[in-house]
Amino acid sequence: MALLDGTGSFLHPHRQQSRTILTRKTRTITRILVARLNPTEDRRDSQRRQLIINSSSSRHGRIGKKLLAIPPAFSALGGTGLEGPESVLQAVGVLTVIILVHEAGHFLAARLQNIHVSKFSIGFGPKLATFQRKEVEYSIRAIPLGGYVGFPDDNPDSEFSPEDPDLLKNRPILDRVLVMSAGVFANIVFAYTLLFTQTLTVGLLQQKILPGVVVPEVYASSAAARAGVRPADVILALDGQEVRSDERSVMQIVDVIKQRPGKKIQMLLQRRGEAVTVDIFPDRSKDGYGRIGVQLSPNIQTFRVKARDLADATVQASREFWKLGSKVVEGLAQVVVNFAQTADKVSGPVAIVAVGAEVARSDVAGLFQFAALLNLNLAVVNILPLPALDGGYLALIALEALRGGKKLPDKIEQGIMSSGILLILALGIVLMVRDTLNLGLVQGL
Length: 445
What we know:
Elements: E1 3-4, E2 10-11, H1 21-34, E3 62-63, H2 85-111, E4 119-133, E5 136-150, H3 173-200, E6 204-218, H4 223-227, E7 233-238, E8 241-242, H5 249-258, E9 265-271, E10 274-280, E11 283-284, E12 290-291, E13 294-305, H6 310-337, H7 339-342, H8 349-362, H9 366-382, H10 390-402, H11 410-438, H12 440-443
Antiparallel strand pairs: 1-2, 3-5, 4-5, 6-7, 6-13, 7-8, 7-9, 9-10, 11-12
Helix pairs in contact: 1-8, 2-3, 2-8, 2-9, 3-6, 3-9, 3-10, 6-9
């Protein structure tokens, strides 16, 4: 993760100097995402960021509750950039496909049971393209950040009788449960399919932590520069004490430097395969801590592992699927349990697109795991028993079952769902505005 070394500068594993510090920070996060979702994350930096995409639904013919949450790997997304139209389009494309899969799950579950469907839409806002096939209107809209499947149940202009047994509202409880849960099921299956395909094609991205800590950048006129530290050096030891070969390696060096302003530290470096020893005297920062003016990163080797055969692909995909799913659940639990501490960590669709674009720029193959991650987020969040989500509808159906098949009054049900819709829309607008203002492109104006 991006950390501070007592110099006031960020520590990260990338050498590209043309980006802003905040954008470097995002590159660190996305590199970690595609390298098996940050197993080297420092425990002291474990605040979780959730990213949410909102959409709307209503009892009057819409079930499309696009609520996506990005899990633990994204723990500091301020200042994200959106440079590179191709990568942005790739990220938007990933989101659109995920939404399409979710809505297709609802749609197919309804159609296979001969339940009437009136609309199938990907996106919101003005229509870009539309066509009518039998009783269903299919459309693609301008804002690809949500979607919905429309049912004619409460449409006063519908050609169907309110008592039609093939209206969703008139179907038995089990039929409605299948329709409402089908979107979540579709995303879960799609997530596993993506990981399975990745294992057979490009291979899953793995990482191995090597001894030492990498120095991607050395600032001019800094204590490190004066001592002869160079970019790409690997710090192996401080004052004869070996640097850890784990996720705590960076913090180990940071702690030593901060506590030794003006005092000599002997560094053992590895430079192009040779051992080099330098004596460094950390400068004293304004807060009194030591600083040497470098950026640091764990010494991580990233590689791909392709499946040998179908059986191996099944094992690898299942292991990665379980790992990503666990991180999604853990991240959402952090929001629920520590909401006061994590509320300011919530970001919206703009940040998701920015991170997806960064993943695409770093390694297009990483979009497999990025897409799998978003699918699992969409599935887990949508199953929560909250108004306007799939889980909210399922909760109402469960309540109906407990009441012996007696539904809640229409006004109460509509009030519950409408309040959820308004809350989600308001949250989405706030997050989109905030994330837009946090973009490196906007901050540079």
